[in-house]
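Summary for the steering committee. One of the milestones for this cycle was to obtain a three-dimensional model of the protein with SLL bound, which we needed before selecting residues for the alanine scan. The sequence and ligand used are listed below.
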Amino acid sequence: NKRVRGVSVFRPFVFGSIAHPFDPEQKPPNCPPDHTHRWEIFVRGVNGEDISYWLKKVQFKLHETYAHNVRSIEEPPFEVSETGWGEFEIQIKLYFVTESNEKPQTLWHSLKLHPYGPDAEGMKERRETVVSQNYEEIIFNEPVEPFYEILTGG
Ligand code: SLL
């Protein structure tokens, strides 16, 4: 497969987490008693843009305290929903469509459950949704021709 020389193609996306504290009275069914939050980790397009034409699969590696802690999501939405009590680093591995010939790329995200701010102690007791997300751009340098066609809609 020939590469398109001298060309770089950028594709934007967003990845991160959103966490909601439970109402202590309303824990989800089958939820362990020490869990305090429901959270999601996700990789998505900017403004809901479809990214599945270049992103084939996302593997999220959760903390080892989770059963089946490696979660592979093969189609959009590329996200995992869980409950828990603690913050940890999540490894996110991006797999590109077969035509791309590209190796997977790894990102890291710190799952945030608690709001941070000047009053750190008090903040931990505050019950609010915590969003932690990053805008990122993936760069495909000298993509192979079939992938270049896909990327540019050619
Ligand atoms: C900590 N380093 O000690 C972190 C680890 C692990 C979080 C946090 C649920 C596990 C389960 C969970 O929230 N694990 O019961 O499935 O703070």
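Key point for the committee: The chain has a mean pLDDT of 93.
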